[in-house]
Design a protein that fits this description.
Blueprint: E1 2-5, E2 9-10, E3 16-22, E4 33-39, E5 46-52, E6 57-59, E7 67-72, E8 77-82, E9 91-97, E10 100-101, E11 105-109
């Protein structure tokens, strides 16, 4: 089971930070990639990046300069940070590790 948490409202130019708590298996041994995905309003799913069970990260080329994914193995959770946000980053953000999805969390970027 995956559960996202974080602020629902972020101001432009700030850093968005979301956490995905994982239960039912260890992020260091179960599955392979732990992903962040988002769906902007009226648009399709966009993959942001992932961290694997070894702690290695991969990012979408279009967002790589603003994205950082890390993990806390003691809490069995992983975190997304997206810097210099703008209203175009408004979306429902999901964490995902096949075949499991979090329920999603709405993030709005607005002053």
């Amino acid at each position: 089971q995956l559960q996202e948490s974080g602020p629902g409202l972020v101001k432009p130019s700030q850093t968005l930070s979301l956490t995905c708590a994982v239960s039912g298996g260890s992020i260091t041994t179960n599955g392979y990639y732990y992903n962040w995905i988002r769906r902007p309003p009226g648009k399709g799913l966009e993959w942001l990046g992932a961290i694997d069970i070894g702690g290695n990260t991969i990012y979408s080329p279009s967002l790589k300069s603003r994205t950082s994914i890390s993990r806390d193995t003691s809490k069995n959770q992983f975190t997304l940070q997206l810097s210099s946000v703008s209203p175009e980053d408004t979306a429902v953000y999901y964490c995902f590790t096949s075949p499991f999805w979090g329920q999603g969390t709405q993030v709005t970027v607005s002053s």
